Amino acid sequence: MSDDEMKTPDAQIKEIEEGRKPGFGAKIRAHFRRFWWLHLIFFVCSTLIIVLCLIYVAFPHISQNGIDDSTLEIQSLTLSDPTPESFHLEQTSIVGNDNNYHPRLDAFNVSLSVDGPEIKPYAYVELPAIHATTKATSYVNQTVKITDLDAFMSYNNITLNNEEVKVAIRGRTALHEMKFPTTTVNYNKIVTLKGLNNFHGFNVTSFEIKLEAEPDGTNMIGTVSIPNLSVMTLTFGNVTFNNYVQGDFIGTSLLNDLVLRPGNNTIPMRSIVNQTLVIEKIVSDFKDGLLPIDIVGNSSVYNGKHLPYFEKALQSSEQHITLNVGEKLAALGLKIPPT
């Protein structure tokens, strides 16, 4: 051990004051003996700055990343009790969270819009508070006001005529995690839903011609099949279709109280048909009795009120079927074409 190391700190300080030069270790020990309080203050301030940065800078950033990384899957969506200005929405969704922390989100309002460069919300929905575990269920059950009719028409047109529709869900809410201060996060999700694909697979599975019309004018009844590969249940009300052969109007068909559910839908159909024109078409152009019919949506009425957002979508949809009308007429004793 050197002579400098054996000296007391006071002796070392005295040597410095008297001009003698102690060793490097002695200088360091003397410095910390005199200025320990300054280093303590520096340590406390540095620690406080790091902790505050973690809480007020890093934690909000980590929280936002966690929200961005989460997933949202809509398992079922039911639109019922529609009016021209509103509808009732029941929706069950699964929120996925693969992070190690599981925060709680307050209830908050979100806008609904078709995903695209222009954000035009057609409605606002309140999402309930949720504990974001690995898989958490979110349930919505509320009446929703339509805030932009044109935007909602666009949404329904895409939903009805395409295989899928992308819905943008946007909002802000408070996030709580353990003892950290509450932070605000943006919730921006794009959800892809299967659409109705222009009623692909639509078919008249059975029909019967009535030579004597019923009191309401119905002279053909039948059954239609409409597949629905989506998770949506949609209440259309009373839906009418216009029927054409070679561009000529031959009558209308009614699907009463139409509620389209996921899966295959079998629905009664009532039609008012210009039988004279139909027979003329068969005699002149379709002697085999197989009549090609073009079906175009016309109206959607619920509780006596027209639903323009459904009507516009239906009017843009066209189905093509072939009915063996000659066979049905022959069963009634009418052989067409005549021999």
Could you explain the architecture of this structure?
- The protein has 339 residues and is an alpha+beta fold.
- 29% of the residues lie in helices and 44% in strands.
- The protein has seven helices and 17 strands.
- Strands 1, 2, 7, 10, 11, 12, 13, 14, 15, 16 and 17 form an eleven-stranded mixed sheet that branches.
- Helix 2 crosses helix 3 and helix 4 (149-161) runs parallel beside helix 6.
- The termini are far apart.
- Mean pLDDT is 86; it is low at 52-57.
Approximate helicity band: 25-40%
% residues in beta strands: 35-45%
Give the SSE order as H and E letters. HHHEEEEEEEHEEEEEEEHEEHEH
Taking all residues together, what is the mean pLDDT? Answer: 86
Strand element count:
17
- SS summary, helix count: 7
Structural class: alpha+beta
Largest sheet: 11 strands, mixed
In one word, what is the shape?
elongated
**CA radius of gyration:** 37 Å
Q: What's the helix and strand layout?
A:
Elements: H1 3-6, H2 9-17, H3 24-69, E1 71-80, E2 86-96, E3 104-105, E4 108-114, E5 123-127, E6 130-131, E7 135-145, H4 149-161, E8 164-176, E9 183-194, E10 203-209, E11 220-228, E12 232-245, E13 248-260, E14 263-273, H5 275-284, E15 290-302, E16 305-306, H6 308-315, E17 318-324, H7 325-331
Helix pairs in contact: 2-3, 4-6
